[in-house]
Design brief:
Elements: H1 3-19, H2 24-34, H3 40-55, H4 57-64, H5 69-76, H6 79-85, H7 98-104, H8 113-116, H9 124-131, H10 135-144, E1 150-153, H11 160-169, E2 174-176, E3 183-186, H12 198-201, E4 205-207, H13 210-219, E5 226-229, H14 236-244, E6 252-257, H15 260-273, E7 278-281, E8 296-302, H16 323-341, E9 344-354, H17 363-372, E10 376-378, H18 381-386, H19 393-403, E11 408-410, H20 413-416, E12 422-428
Parallel strand pairs: 5-6, 5-8, 6-7, 8-9
Antiparallel strand pairs: 1-3, 1-4, 2-3, 9-12, 10-12, 11-12
Helix pairs in contact: 1-2, 1-3, 1-5, 2-3, 3-5, 4-5, 9-10, 13-14, 16-17
The protein binds S-adenosylmethionine.
S-adenosylmethionine is lined by residues 230-237, 256-259, 262, 282, 284, 302, 304, 336.
Length: 431
């Protein structure tokens, strides 16, 4: 395909992504299936153009007064790229109009903060509520950054150095993550097919962002505990909780979710890792959890959220949360926290986690919870980090610094080079 034809394809994909709820990766895959003539190099180039276009959407909207695929790609490409692609020849997009040329003459510096930060205008106050004066830099790191590929090494199966050597033998260079003591960060930014590696099949590691690992370590699962993972989803944190619980056969791990298909996805992961957990599909209102009321030593609520902390991985999601969907999520989050808290035994722990950077889903939910539950008190992040053998000394210091003596912490690509996870910790008063 010519550069122009690839650009035209990227514009088509960008318009499909804007109209769809599916992840951009999936839209790209289905475009590839419908256009078999595009070779793997073409598909890779189209994917790069499309992702650059998604990341340019806010500035495109400001500059052109509209953010369709053409506007996004015009914004994303430099002058040379535009000249090479927008030729009007054969399958290439039409040449630039005079109005487009005039719009492109305006410097990015004229754009409002929200556009330069890569987010829709209505999200700026949400981000400011979380990050204060730094919000635009934080948002830009989320919307424009590229996420690394992190692995959590299953120390119950292999030492960090053994996992690193197994990766190196497959030409995959990695380094230890600075904050989680169980993490390896791949040097390559393109996802290799890890599933084919013998070390993966033997359960030596799982793909898991360092921030997600830290959330599990902060929750504070220990050997011998009865631990409930209330929103287990695909099981990323379930497996980490099991790792924190230490020696085989020690304690009890129960994974809930409303979606039985998600729970099914955990089974092969448990098997690979040698982990044991009871999987249980529960009702949306907590039906099926009554037998654990007041019995759990630790309940983790990894709540459904806007996933705004993962925008580096899915920049199209920046445009998908609406004020209405956010309102629905915050109502669900407080209901879930309330239901899950009933399972905590007197003196037991409760951890609330999201992968969001919006204060409305995070601190506001945590504050409302403590205000409405006199039998729960905040548990210090610095204490939780300080007692976890799975957090590095640097990680303990950084978490304590970010928590500023409090019971909650907000991670972000800019602050911790992780996804934007949030945790708030509570403890139920002894009976
Ligand atoms: C953020 S995801 C969990 C991710 C998972 N813990 C992990 O680490 O991979 C949130 C999960 O909450 C589940 N969920 C939604 N409503 C729920 C409810 N009322 N009770 C329990 N789980 C619920 C969703 O099905 C989804 O799997």
């Amino acid at each position: 395909m010519t550069p122009g034809a690839r650009a035209a394809a990227a514009i088509e994909v960008l318009d499909q992504v804007a109209a769809s709820r599916a992840p951009a990766d999936e839209v790209l895959r289905s475009w590839g299936r419908a256009h078999r003539f595009a070779g793997s190099k073409d598909r890779r180039a189209i994917a790069e153009l499309a992702f650059a276009g998604v990341r340019a959407r806010a500035l495109a909207g400001w500059r052109f007064g509209g953010d369709d695929g053409r506007a996004c790609l015009l914004q994303a490409l430099g002058e040379a790229g535009r000249a090479a692609c927008f030729t009007g020849e054969a399958h290439a997009p039409a040449p630039l109009t005079d109005a487009e040329r005039a719009a492109l003459a305006r410097p990015d510096a004229d754009a409002p903060d929200w556009a330069r930060a890569g987010v829709p205008a209505w999200k700026a106050p949400l981000l400011e509520a979380s990050f204060g004066a730094d919000w635009a830099e934080e948002a830009a790191a989320l919307s424009q950054g590229r996420a690394p590929i992190d692995l959590r090494v299953n120390l119950r199966r292999a030492a960090l150095t053994s996992a690193q050597a197994a990766l190196a033998a497959a030409d995959l260079a990695s380094g230890a993550t600075p904050l989680s003591a169980t993490g390896l960060r791949l040097t390559a930014r393109l996802a290799p097919d890890l599933h084919k590696l013998q070390a993966f099949r033997a359960g030596w590691f799982e793909v898991q962002d360092e921030g997600s690992q830290l959330m599990a370590w902060l929750a504070g699962a220990e050997p011998g505990m009865t631990v409930v993972d209330y929103c287990a989803g695909g099981g990323g944190k379930t497996l980490a909780l099991w790792q924190a619980m230490g020696a085989k056969g020690s304690g009890r791990l129960i994974a809930f979710d409303v979606d039985p298909r998600r729970l099914d996805a955990i089974r092969p992961r448990l098997e690979r890792s040698g982990a044991q957990a009871t999987l249980r599909a529960i009702g949306a209102d907590g039906q099926g959890t009554q037998d654990l009321e007041g019995r759990a030593d630790l309940v983790l609520v990894d709540a459904p959220c806007s996933a705004s902390g993962t925008w580096r991985r899915r920049p199209e999601a920046i445009w998908r949360t609406t004020p209405e969907s956010l309102q629905r999520l915050t109502a669900l989050q407080s209901a879930l926290l309330d239901r899950a808290s009933r399972l905590v035994r007197p003196g037991g722990r409760l951890a609330y986690v999201t992968c969001s950077v919006f204060a409305a889903e995070n601190l506001a939910a945590a504050d409302a919870f403590v205000a409405a539950h006199a039998d729960f008190r905040p548990r210090s992040i610095a204490d939780a980090a300080g007692t976890s053998p799975l957090i590095t000394p640097q990680g303990r210091d950084r978490l304590a610094e970010l928590a500023r003596g409090g019971h909650s912490v907000q991670l972000s690509p800019r602050r911790t080079d992780t996804d934007g996870f949030f945790a708030a910790l509570f403890e139920r008063s002894p009976a």
